Amino acid sequence: MDRKKVMKIxxxxxxxxxxxxxxxxxxxxxxxxxxxxxxxGHSxxxxxGYSHSYGGSGGLSGIFFLSSxxxxxxxxxxxxxxxxxxxxxxxxxxxxxxxxxPGIKSNEGIFEEEIIARIQEEDPAFSAENxxxxxxxxxxxxxxxxxxxxxxxxxxxxxxxxxxxxxxxxQEYIDHHKTNYMNMQNVRGIxxxxxxxxxxxxxxxxxxxxxxxxxxxxxxxxxxxxxSKTDYVYRSYNLEFIRKKGIKTKEQEGTAVxxxxxxxxxxxxxxxxxxxxxxxxxxxxxxxxxLNRYSPW
Length: 297
Fold this sequence. Notes:
- This protein has helices at 3-17, 19-22, 70-89, 96-100, 112-122, 128-148, 160-175, and strands at residues 40-44, 50-54, 178-197, 201-218, 224-227, 233-244, 290-296.
- It is α+β, with helices and mostly antiparallel strands.
- It has a domain at 107-296: Nuclear Transport Factor 2, Chain: A (Roll).
- The strands form 2 sheets. Strands 3, 4, 5, 6 and 7 form a 5-stranded antiparallel β-sheet that branches. Strands 1-2 form a two-stranded antiparallel sheet.
- Strand 3 (178-197) and strand 4 (201-218) form a beta hairpin.
- It starts with a helix and ends with a strand.
- Mean pLDDT is 74; it is low at 17-25, 38-68 and 89-99.
């Protein structure tokens, strides 16, 4: 057998063998610990729409750090050598982009134009451009609020259940004197990926591709506990938006929430999702699109 093939098989074998170590390696937390090891799921609920449950703060402690063990260092060296080998092999080919953006998922199987047409059959004034801008605004606002440890900034944008879950998870960082920094955010693409409805709500899933710096710092010592201040991560997000069935987009109206849609007052929302003036619940999808799920794609 060719010596190069033998070396390649050996490297692949070592990488597969070390996979058991990698699966518990630190994955940067992001909003709601959504990119930590715990993962998350959801189940449909009654009354207020959909309820979600996410994993705990598994990304904060008890994690196997590759760089802190001889085996981990060896695995990292092999990964680098294997990546260099493949990049040289594929130099000048279309595959190079895969190595530069390993976390960005393919749009294969998503037919956005057909999905937009279906939404506009029900809501002729729906603007795909406005909706993409809104999704980008929500994502950026979530990142900034998570880092600032001030979750009330996103109160107008999230459903009641999702807000309560994220607010509780953020409190864990506050209690443990940790800050999850997310800097240099860059939205690289937004795709309206699916549309459906049930008896109560319309549901739109958005695939948002982004790059950012994501790292966790101990507030007392300043030590970086997870992630890197210099190494970018590339991710594809699944953002689920809901609104009450039958709600239509008003002509010439953007999607962003700036005033209470019921009374017109400037949007100041209480922790329960109420407008402080008319007491209407404006974060359950009764008046427009709200974020109901935030997870990896």
